[in-house]
Write a structure and sequence with these properties.
heterodimer, A: 434 residues, Aspartate Aminotransferase, domain 1, Aspartate Aminotransferase, domain 2, seven-stranded mixed sheet, 13 helices, 15 strands, B: 523 residues, three-stranded antiparallel sheet, 17 helices, 10% strand
Chain lengths: 434, 523
């Protein structure tokens, strides 16, 4: 090969790298290893993690222990989905493109909004992407977010907004853990580009979205709602309640926990934003023989065409995770989505009663709720001894709920699991009282 | 009869069919309207498909067969580093200790995951030659945004306000798009006759209002910019940061490090250099490595290693408090599943293996470049120098002499069961073909590719229409992208009119601008 190139050695190929920037030594990394040795090293690291098969986990707060059917794993491991890249050549990418089109359809159905893109990175950065769209659309300087929006989403919004030069103001929650409508209305002015809500909110409260959207209206601000797609099986779609843009974290749709990623984010909107959406969009068309097919469309929004005038900088997104989402939704199907949401709703309601702890958000909830516990340290200690993870402690994100615990009830948490948690909570309470 | 493969899963729906069986109810069947007020409830169910498991399997298996993939054939997509994805990595990522680990698990019970992240950070730090790493960004473009937000925080901390970011005219599209998102103005720097940065132009533009120069080295022409030390001097002299777009890091691992070249901030594309499967467009991950002066501003949380308190065992933790941090870029800690695969890759190859990977990538690219020089009359190389891991040809000869465009050549390659190179990028090369074979292709595949290019040019000499009308053997042939953009149909609706019906297609002539499939990837 060197002869064909016309050089004498491999080193000659690197002659253009100046001496001053050459490493001149080996990388200080361990030597390469056999496959079985690498397997053993990583498997032993993995064995040191307390995962959701090792304990009964009530952790949620943005990612949830839902059952992922074997069907998803099986299809995702097909090389034809796993190993191509973005479908730049549609003639040999119809599988991936049609999946995107189906995904867009499913997200549109769930959110009640007419258009969706083919995925963004994940939930919180999707919220930030909606902020950028609001800036492009309105040219205004201020974003208003309910404190019911996930703390990571509000943080990501602030981080990104520092770039696109917008301020983020927060609206408090009421004593019942819902967004304060009056406070929201008073925070919105002529400088407000968008209002951010979440359904259900971070505490699990089902927000009165219609009322909030109405309060937000009138001053020209866009209404953005972050939503969890699974509870939307029973909840009124955001698109039917005055919401302009609905984004969210898609992990609950057939994606693993993976210690927080990769999952996917989704981005759905009213029709008028179609030329401002971030990321890939698949569209239907025909080939030269009149055969139905799919292509990446409206690419003049995107960085590879429009460069500094692009509507977002995103390129590689989460196509494989979105595929998991659409397979999962097909598996649940029209009736299954309702059934699973209703199952969670009933078990969550049961859990709230069984635990007998003071509710932070006594109103309607679907899969998650917040309570006050008199001594969280004691509760966690007892629960850990029973291989139970009681949930997420709210104190670090919400000083106002220092004794707050957020408890998630997925379809994997049975009545028996809930009763065990209730027993532990009762014992902890008695221990404190004694 | 075989069903139409283009029928969506929604069109396969039949009332009453299902795959999911719900778990047995075990709590009181309280009526739903007692639990959820009518005002909050969905009026009608979402119109998801009603299909059985065998139908779902057949549908997605059938669709998969309409995809070309790396596990099947040569995929020299320039700037995307389509190298083999070892199967071990999938097994490791699926271990319950990884796949079933909740991101908010108490760090005391996630020591294995945090140690893996810490070890990956240390390895990336060594490869970049920069001391500090954050794994958080979700992809290359997210890493770029992190880099500019860090730059802004760094300058603001010094009381400086800077408004411009320099990007070469050869830059990936994500660079200028990122600049705008980060609130800066793009200023383009020209390319010199040798394909590197035009130093005079850089000196002229690198003023006190410039915050950063974003650079890819080797650049998108596949050329190493040997003036890099001088470029760094000019940029630092102006008080700006130097940003390394890591899309092309696969050329120089263990050979030259961005930190030693003078870069302040680097992003890695784990899905390129460190072989996360590309997944049809993600997931990826875009960790960043930075110098000491940028470190205080890194995103939170940070992975930290604390000396053992009750023994020699170190403890790993997540640190959320950093007074000058830019904050969070996303939820949780980044794409951990990607970290597992990339860490396994680094462990498998080791330091020497990573260097060998880069050497082989450069060898393969130069071999292919030398072999394709045979067709110089039709596909001249854009800059005739030793290349690094990729190179760019121009289709201007074929266009002028044979009447076939680069897009036609790319489409004809599809009939030969190879994926075409990246086309029409970089923008400054007329009819560009950007070719990156990667190190995991054997010589035979490169030779096959040369033969394919030769046969396409030969048949064009006989009858250019053969190439102009390609492809012929693919699941669909050339698609009407203009029609798709003119009246976008972006979801399935029952009974909706067919976007490709002949009348409608005839009425669409307007273009959505630059061609869809004739475009480039990056980040």
């Amino acid at each position: 090969m060197l002869d064909a190139i016309g050089v004498g050695s491999l080193e000659d190929l690197f002659a253009e790298i100046p001496e001053g920037v050459r490493l001149g030594r080996e990388l200080d990394l361990p030597e390469g290893r056999a496959e079985q040795e690498v397997y053993e090293e990583l498997a032993s690291l993995a064995a040191r993690n307390g995962h959701c098969d090792d304990e009964v986990s009530f952790l949620g707060a943005g990612m949830y222990d839902h059952y992922v059917p074997a069907l998803v794993d099986s299809i995702l491991q097909r090389s034809e989905y796993l190993t191509p890249y973005t479908p730049y050549q549609p003639e040999v990418s119809q599988g991936g493109l049609q999946v995107m089109f189906e995904f867009q359809t499913a997200i549109s159905e769930l959110t009640g909004l007419p258009i969706s893109n083919a995925s963004v990175y994940e939930g919180p950065s999707a919220v930030a992407a909606a902020g950028y769209l609001a800036k492009l659309e309105t040219g205004r300087t201020k974003l208003v977010a309910s404190r019911g929006v996930h703390p990571h989403s509000r943080a990501a919004l602030r981080t990104h907004a520092a770039g696109y030069r917008m301020a983020v103001e927060e609206v408090p929650l009421t004593a019942e853990g819902a967004t304060d409508v009056a406070a929201l209305a008073s925070e919105i002015d002529d400088d407000t580009a968008a209002v951010f809500l979440q359904q259900p909110n971070f505490l699990g409260t089902v927000e009165e979205l219609g009322e909030l959207a109405e309060a937000a209206g009138g001053k020209g601000a866009l209404v953005v709602c972050a939503a969890d797609p699974l509870p939307l099986g029973v909840l009124k779609p955001p698109g039917e309640q005055g919401v302009d843009i609905c984004v969210g974290e898609g992990q609950t749709l057939g994606n693993r926990l993976d210690f927080g990623g990769p999952s996917f984010g989704f981005f759905a909107a009213q029709e008028r934003f179609i030329r401002k959406l971030p990321g890939r969009i698949a569209g239907e068309t025909r080939d030269v023989d009149g055969k139905r097919g799919f292509v990446l469309t409206l690419q003049t929004r995107e960085q590879h065409i429009r460069r500094e005038k692009a509507t977002h900088n995103i390129c590689t997104s989460q196509a494989l995770n979105a595929l998991a989402g659409v397979i999962y939704l097909s598996w649940l199907g029209k009736r299954g989505l309702v059934e699973i949401a209703e199952l969670m709703l009933r078990r969550t309601h049961y859990a709230r009663q069984a635990l007998g702890l003071e509710a932070i958000n006594p109103g309607p909830v679907v899969r998650e709720f917040a309570v006050r516990a008199p001594d969280l340290d004691a509760l966690f200690e007892r629960a850990r001894a029973e291989q139970i993870n009681p949930g997420y402690r709210l104190g670090s994100d919400y000083p106002e709920y220092e004794d707050g615990l957020l408890i998630a009830i997925t379809e994997r948490r049975t009545r028996a699991d809930i009763d065990r948690l209730a027993t532990v909570a009762a014992a902890a309470r008695e221990g404190v009282a004694a | 009869m075989t069903p139409d493969p283009s029928a969506t899963i929604f069109e396969r729906s039949r009332e009453g069919r299902r795959a999911f069986v719900p778990p047995a109810p075990d709590v009181p069947e309280v009526p739903i309207d007692e639990l959820l007020p009518a005002s909050a409830r969905r009026g009608r169910p979402a119109e998801l498909p009603e299909v059985s498991e065998p139908e779902i399997v057949r549908h997605y298996n059938t669709l998969s067969k309409m995809n070309f993939d790396l596990d099947t054939g040569f995929y020299p997509l320039g700037s995307c580093t389509m190298k083999h994805n070892p199967k071990l990595h999938e097994r490791l990522a699926a271990l319950p200790g990884h796949a079933r680990l909740h991101p908010l698990q108490d760090p005391a019970y996630a020591q294995g995951a945090l140690e893996l992240m810490w070890l990956l950070e240390r390895a990336l730090s060594e490869i970049a030659g920069l001391p500090h790493v954050s794994l958080q960004p979700s992809a290359g473009s997210h890493g770029e945004l992190a880099g500019l937000l860090l730059t802004r925080a760094y300058h603001e901390d010094r009381g400086e306000e800077r408004t411009k970011v320099l990007t070469p005219d050869t830059a990936h599209g994500t660079n200028p798009a990122t600049v705008t998102m980060a609130g800066y103005e793009v200023v383009k720097v020209g390319t010199a006759a040798d394909g590197g940065v035009d130093l005079d132009d850089l000196r002229e533009k690198a003023g006190e209002d410039v915050a950063c120069l974003m650079l890819t080295n080797p650049n998108t022409l596949g050329l190493f910019d040997s003036n890099i030390e001088e470029i760094a001097r000019v940029v630092h002299g102006a008080g700006a940061t130097l940003y390394y777009d890591g899309a092309n890091l696969n050329a120089v691992m263990g050979i030259a490090r961005p930190g030693d070249m003078g870069f302040d901030i680097v992003h890695f594309n784990l899905h390129k250099t460190f072989t996360q499967p590309h997944g049809g467009g993600g997931p990826g991950a875009g960790p960043i490595a930075v110098s000491d002066r940028i470190e205080p501003f890194l995103p939170v949380p940070r992975v930290v290693r604390r000396a053992g308190e009750d023994g020699p065992e170190p403890r790993f933790d997540l640190e959320h408090d950093a007074p000058k941090t830019i904050g969070r870029l996303r939820g949780f800690h980044g794409n951990f599943g990607v970290f597992v695969r990339s860490f396994a890759y680094i462990r498998s190859l080791g330091g020497d293996g990573l260097k060998e990977a880069s050497e082989s990538a450069v060898l393969n690219a130069n071999y292919l470049r030398a072999r394709l020089a045979e067709f110089d009359e039709y596909l001249p190389i854009a800059f005739d120098r030793t290349c690094m891991h990729e190179f760019v040809l121009s289709g201007r000869g074929a266009k002028g002499k044979l009447g076939i465009k680069t897009l036609d050549i790319a489409k004809r390659m599809l009939d030969h069961q190879v994926h075409p190179p990246t086309v029409y990028f970089p923008l400054l090369v007329d009819e560009a073909l950007m070719i990156e074979p990667t190190e995991t292709e054997p010589k035979e595949r490169l030779d096959d590719f040369v033969e394919i290019v030769g046969s396409i040019l030969d048949e064009a000499k006989e009858d250019p229409d053969i190439v102009r009308n390609a492809p012929y053997t693919t699941p669909v042939r050339r698609l009407d992208e203009a029609a798709a953009a003119k009246r976008p149909v972006v979801r399935w609706r029952p009974g909706a009119d067919n976007p490709g019906d002949p009348e409608r297609a005839a009425g669409s002539g307007a273009s959505d601008g630059a061609g869809g499939s004739g475009v480039t990837p990056t980040a």
